[in-house]
Design a protein that fits this description.
The protein has helices spanning 22-26, 41-48, 79-86, and strands at residues 3-7, 10-14, 34-38, 65-67, 89-93, 95-96. By secondary structure, the chain is α+β, with helices and mostly antiparallel strands. It has one domain (3-100). A hairpin with a 2-residue loop joins β1 and β2.
Amino acid sequence: MPADSTGSNGPNLGFRAPQVDPVSHVAGKVDSPWISASRDINVAMEKYGENGIVAIVLSQLDTAVVDFSIGIPGREGQMISNWAAKDSEVLILGHVPPEAIPWWTTP
């Protein structure tokens, strides 16, 4: 996940990019406004945690959240849906404020 700053209150995650739909982000669109997260801490740590991980309290976000953790609706059985489900993927649009990050790890 791209971090745009790290202040005394912890990480502040955000990314600005052109409009990209959530499915295109999962498919690998690099220039995307979506932030990938996982509901599975083991996936976060073992697959994506080489630079550390953050916990995100989704109820504290004021942006779009798309939950693909059990697959992509309408694309059941397709490879892209299976990827999303395997990673328990949740997408967050644009920004995660520091207040929504109760803890983080560093490498």
